[in-house]
Specification:
The complex is a heterodimer.
Chain A: E1 5-9, E2 19-25, E3 32-33, E4 38-43, E5 48-52, E6 57-62, E7 69-71, E8 75-80, H1 86-99, H2 105-111, E9 115-119, E10 122-129, E11 135-139, H3 153-156, E12 161-165, H4 182-195, E13 201-206, H5 208-219, E14 224-230, H6 241-249, H7 253-261, H8 272-282, H9 287-298, H10 309-314, E15 319-324, E16 343-347, H11 354-357, H12 359-369
Parallel strand pairs in A: 11-12, 11-13, 13-14, 14-15, 15-16
Antiparallel strand pairs in A: 1-8, 2-4, 2-7, 3-6, 4-5, 6-8, 9-10, 10-12
Chain B: E1 2-5, H1 6-20, E2 24-28, H2 54-58, E3 62-64, H3 69-81, E4 85-92, H4 100-107, H5 110-113, E5 123-128, H6 143-147, E6 153-155, H7 160-172, E7 177-182, E8 189-192, E9 205-208, E10 213-217, H8 221-233, E11 239-243, E12 246-248, H9 252-262, E13 265-269, H10 277-288, E14 298-301, H11 311-317, H12 321-333
Parallel strand pairs in B: 2-3, 2-4, 4-5, 5-7, 6-7, 10-11, 10-13, 13-14
Antiparallel strand pairs in B: 1-8, 6-12, 9-11
Classes of the chains: A alpha/beta, B alpha/beta.
Chain lengths: 371, 336
């Protein structure tokens, strides 16, 4: 906020995002905006979603028009107190536009490229963001990759050093997964931390990544600062087995899309490019075997083998559970009935990919635990 | 993942499959450098250098052949039936005429005539297409001939990513595959994973999503369609572009689903207009999605004439982005 005036700008969601199209306004000029409210819907090459207001205020000006395609950082709207005169809003917009330089696509890629680390022959790809503060490690779910955190990592990196990694068998990491067990994955996380000299870390895990985080914390409580488990596996036996099998087997666009739609409360968020990215991953040699090995080990016959709920009781760590109320993969009821010390947050209007669908809320919850 | 050219993508696919499977061999004219001659080995790597460096890595598994297409295509088909997986390069698709029997009557028929028991895992890589000032005998788009024959699979990639994934799929396929590379795409760049991957045959790519009009295309013409779609977007005409990637098998569902949605179809094919891919798709849509059509189907193709040698005439011969754009505008304005 500059003198009570807030610029709502085009966010940067993920490495490859350069620009996005304005789909439509959710708040008209003169409307009240609360911090975290979605003000405008935009569509990137990969995904459609709402841009949230950072602070509360009144929406004073739409600067971008519907169907405009604007670069990252461009001014979309102005939010300010109701008592600030129009002339000051005009001056703010003029100043902003005069000094705004769209990012150079070539330069932004160099600065934000992923790294890899070789852990005894197993190459792990990761993205590090943020310069100072505690370490936070983000662990994606089954079939996912570090891009699952594209709405979260940047926000968390403001105050922390945030690592998003591709688990073995996923993304740009080695496709060999050993026996595909939670212990195997947790050992990879430990090796990753040792290799990068991360003393201890806040672990944030989504879905299968939640069960991995929990397994890691049980084995290495001294290395774990806190645990945030999002739509997590490992807390009950139920899971949508048709999703797991369907995702593993699908090779074509029309087969994979219905399964991806189950991940979101609002299936229209899935773009052609998102489906294409999943297919490009699934086509790589070794991925099919990796996913099948993991699925057989963790989710045979549509059930979760590892239910770590009793161990959760024993864990003396700041822990929270976050769930999308409309999760169709792992039921939101798994968030309930945990130990009293474990905070539980169920978010309405969001599905299994709650960290994408309700990013602001999830980021706020993570930040509240990772202090 | 890194940026690679179409040519590098093909070379990498060959190299990785040769590494993975000892049965994969390469054959073709000058693909080593003219063995038996006085010259330097591995100097050429094929007429445009696609296989350069592979002889150094794989030695005798990269074979120079004499200039006898009928003999070496026959040899490759025979080798495929007896346990090897040859990838044979037939320099220009225009030269296929001398080995039609080996391809049409032998390779394409074995599985069928031996009751499904015979496999013929041969890939014939070949260059096609106009624009290289190579005249009428080195510039044709003869893929419709192969698409016509049951028992052959026909692949026509348009991007480096597709070229690598489709070539690896072709090499691992147990049937004969005609792999057609447009000569003007070799320097095209794109993101290509370093790892091996496969793209299934018979799945078209939706290059661009749109509501107003469907453009079905293949090979180099996909890029022209994209150019046209960008120009049309400026006038508020929203095109969907489907890249067939393979013409046999063909992804009929993708075409029909798209036309059901847009109601308008332009098919762009660099081949001559009689019995080409454009006529085939037009018939498919007229038979199965007639009710969805809001306007006639338009085919944008080369004329029914040999490829001219004169630069100006050759440029005129190849379907242009402007001609695709004009066809699209005509359909959108039809009866409106």
């Amino acid at each position: 906020m500059s003198g009570g005036i807030q610029a709502l700008t085009m966010p940067k969601w993920g490495l490859s995002m350069q620009e996005a199209k304005i789909v439509g306004w959710r708040v008209e000029v003169g409307g009240e905006v609360l911090s975290g409210d979605e003000v405008v819907d935009i569509e990137t090459e990969k995904i459609a979603a709402g841009v949230e207001a950072r602070d509360s205020g009144v929406l004073r000006r739409h600067v971008a028009g519907e169907d405009d395609v604007l670069p990252v950082g461009a001014l979309l709207a102005v939010i300010a107190d109701a008592n600030i005169p129009e002339s000051e809003i005009d001056a703010f917009v003029t100043d902003f536009q005069a000094s705004f330089v769209p990012p150079d696509p070539a330069a932004s890629e160099v600065g934000e490229a992923t790294d890899t680390v070789d852990l005894s022959g197993r190459v792990i790809r990761y993205l590090k963001r943020g310069d100072s503060g505690d370490a936070v490690i983000l662990l994606h779910g089954f079939g996912g990759d570090l891009n699952n955190w594209l709405f979260n990592q940047e926000a968390l990196a403001a105050k922390h050093v945030v690592y998003a990694l591709d688990l073995p068998g996923h993304g740009g990491s080695t496709k060999e997964v050993g026996d595909g067990s939670l212990r195997e994955f947790a050992a990879t996380v430990a090796a990753f931390m040792a290799a990068l000299e991360i003393g201890n870390a806040h672990l944030v895990g989504h879905s299968m990544g939640g069960a991995i985080a929990l397994t890691f914390a049980l084995a290495h409580p001294e290395l774990t600062s806190s645990l945030t488990l999002i739509g997590s596996s490992g807390l009950g036996a139920e899971i949508d087995g048709t999703y797991i099998d369907g995702f593993v087997q699908a090779r074509r666009r029309r087969d994979v899309k219905p399964h991806l739609e189950k991940l979101f409360s609002d299936p229209s968020l899935i773009t052609r490019q998102l489906v294409e990215d999943v297919l490009r991953y699934k086509r790589l040699d070794g991925v099919q075997d990796a996913l099948a090995t993991i699925a057989k080990q963790l989710f045979p016959e549509g059930r979760q083998v590892a239910v770590l709920r009793p161990q959760l009781e024993r864990l003396q760590l700041p822990t929270q559970l976050i769930w999308g109320e409309e999760d169709r993969i792992i039921p939101a009821s798994h968030a309930l009935g945990g130990p009293a010390a474990v905070a539980t947050h169920t978010i309405p209007g969001a599905g299994h990919m709650v960290q994408m669908e309700a990013a602001a809320e999830v980021n706020r919850l993570i930040q509240s635990l990772v202090v | 993942m890194s940026t690679k050219t179409f040519q590098q993508a093909i070379s990498e696919a060959l190299s990785q499959e040769m590494e993975r499977d000892q049965r994969v061999i390469l054959m073709g004219e000058d693909i080593v450098g003219g063995s038996g001659g006085e010259g330097e080995m591995d100097a050429w790597g094929g007429v445009l250098g696609v296989t350069k460096g592979l002889w150094g890595k794989f030695g005798d598994r990269v074979l120079d052949t004499p200039i006898t297409e009928s003999a070496f295509i026959g040899a490759a088909v025979g080798a495929a039936t007896s346990g090897l997986r040859p990838v044979v390069e037939l320099m220009f698709i225009d030269f296929m005429g001398v080995c039609f029997d080996q391809i049409f009557n032998q390779a394409a028929k074995f599985r069928y005539m031996f009751g499904g028991k015979a496999e013929t895992p041969v890939v014939i890589r070949t260059m096609f297409g106009a624009g290289l000032r190579a005249a009428a005998q080195h510039s044709q788009c003869l893929y419709p001939l192969f698409t016509h024959i049951p028992g052959l699979k026909v692949v026509i990639p348009s991007t480096p990513y597709d070229a690598k994934g489709l070539l690896i799929e072709a090499i691992r396929d147990d049937d004969p595959v005609i792999f057609c590379e447009h000569k003007l795409l070799y320097s095209e760049e794109g993101e290509v994973p370093d790892e091996a991957y496969t793209i299934p045959f018979g799945e078209a790519a939706v290059v661009r999503e749109g509501e107003d009009l469907t453009i079905v295309s293949l090979g180099r013409m996909v890029h022209r369609a994209v150019e046209a779609a960008q120009a049309l977007a400026g006038s508020g005409i929203d095109c969907e572009i489907i890249d067939l990637r393979t013409t046999s098998p063909m992804d009929e569902d993708a075409i029909l689903e798209s036309v059901e949605n847009t109601g308008r179809l332009v098919v762009v094919d660099e081949a001559h207009p009689r019995c080409n891919i454009a006529t085939d798709i037009s018939a498919l849509v007229a038979q199965n999605a007639f009710g969805a059509l809001k306007a006639p189907i338009r085919m944008v193709t080369a004329p029914h004439s040999p490829v001219p040698f004169g630069n100006a005439l050759e440029d005129l011969y190849i379907p242009s982005a402007a001609s695709i754009e004009a066809a699209a505008r005509e359909l959108v304005e039809y009866r409106s």
